[in-house]
Design brief:
Number of helices: 5
CATH architecture: 3-Layer(aba) Sandwich
Number of domains: 1
Strand content: 25-35%
Oligomer: single chain
Number of strands: 7
Radius of gyration: 15 Å
Distance between the termini: 45 Å
Shape: globular
Helix content: 25-40%
Structural class: alpha/beta
Length: 175
């Protein structure tokens, strides 16, 4: 069974008026679902390094939520202010990021304290149906990386036979 974005996105704690980031938005499957859930008071921040993806997303946008389509290399600085996002989706992109530690550090910076990140990625290459086997991350390694940046990580979520998923909660502010 393949991943169904509508089913997996139900695990993201998204409420009307939230600001939600979709990192590596690609064709915008998650962004569109998020925009529908957020309503007119919410905002979707869709990040991608490939401008044509963002242009296509802007043209196809029909949700009431505000869309901010942002060209961004996720190996570098995420170009939004600290603590802006309530929720983030990192789906099928972490394996592509070369500077994973830098990305997770930046993700922690842009998340509000206690905000949630839905992490979804491939469990295997599946004979190149998925990403090349040398870039596939084990679920345990992915969890370890998020924990090393102060995120707390919940149980694995149902994500079909080809993917893993979990929620990571950004560290709370320290006094």
């Amino acid at each position: 069974m393949f991943l169904d974005p509508k089913k997996i996105i139900r695990h993201a704690p998204v409420k009307a008026s939230h600001r939600v980031g979709d990192f590596g938005t690609g064709a915008g499957h998650y962004a569109h679902i998020l925009g529908e859930r957020l309503g007119a008071e919410g905002s979707v921040y869709a990040f991608d390094a490939f401008t044509p993806h963002l242009d296509a997303l802007r043209r196809a946008w029909s949700a009431q939520a505000q869309l901010y389509a942002i060209e961004s290399d996720l190996n570098t600085h995420i170009p939004i202010r600290n603590n802006l996002l309530h929720t983030a989706v990192v789906a099928n992109v972490l394996h592509q990021i070369e500077k994973k530690g830098r990305f997770i550090s930046e993700l922690e910076r842009v998340m509000e304290p206690g905000g949630s990140v839905l992490v979804v990625d491939w469990v295997s290459s599946f004979k190149n149906m998925g990403p090349p086997k040398e870039v596939v991350l084990a679920p345990s390694e992915t969890v370890r990386m998020f924990r090393s940046f102060g995120f707390s990580v919940g149980d694995m979520l149902p994500a079909g036979t080809h993917h893993f998923a979990f929620l990571a909660v950004a560290p709370k502010e320290t006094i």
